[in-house]
Structure to design on (123 residues):
């Protein structure tokens, strides 16, 4: 699972990068083998809505499958990162569970090759 961080309009700093990567690992670590990449885009919104001027967008590319995108707007960037990754993790879990249940309903039949030897005969 590759994690990419982007910050629009500011330099995030080491601590914020570490926080974002830790949150991604915690929220998505269970699905690591099925996730190709995670892109976390952090930005400050110029026109704040209700005092919420920080946004975090998370894009997850599942291996050979769909893409999951979540976005959270908050007054606190740490909270936006955490909530966006939490929502993305839930969406990934639902997608993979649905996919698993669709394939688990398939009937698998097993055929054994019959033993073609002649039955034991008395000599």
């Amino acid at each position: 699972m590759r994690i990419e961080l982007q910050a629009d309009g500011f330099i995030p700093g080491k601590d914020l990068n570490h926080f974002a990567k830790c949150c991604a690992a915690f929220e998505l670590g269970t699905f690591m083998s099925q996730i190709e990449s995670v892109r976390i885009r952090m930005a400050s919104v110029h026109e704040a809505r209700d005092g919420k001027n920080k946004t975090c967008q998370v894009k997850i590319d599942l291996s050979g499958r769909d893409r999951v995108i979540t976005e959270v707007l908050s007054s606190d960037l740490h909270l936006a990162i955490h909530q966006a990754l939490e929502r993305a993790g839930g969406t990934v879990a639902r997608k993979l569970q649905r996919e698993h249940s669709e394939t688990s309903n398939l009937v698998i039949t097993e055929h054994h090759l019959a033993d073609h030897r002649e039955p034991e005969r008395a000599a």
